[in-house]
Write a structure and sequence with these properties.
mainly beta
Length: 65
């Protein structure tokens, strides 16, 4: 499979792509200088060759203080 990572910043209404589709199943999120608040990180996964935006995904919430 390939993986893509998205971040939703506090009070934002649109997601930002953090890392485009690739073979790396991990994402190192650098929070240096980010304001405190609730962030959501979403991981999308799809089989190589799939034409779907994602075959599956998971979203996790993080609170930066």
């Amino acid at each position: 499979p390939t993986y893509e990572f998205w971040i939703l910043k506090p009070n934002a209404t649109t997601w930002t792509m953090a890392q485009p589709y690739g073979a790396d199943s991990t994402y190192a999120w650098d929070t240096t200088g980010l304001p405190p608040g609730m962030y959501q990180v979403s991981t999308w996964a799809r089989q190589t060759g799939s034409t779907l935006a994602q075959d599956t995904y998971a979203t996790t919430t993080f609170w930066l203080t």
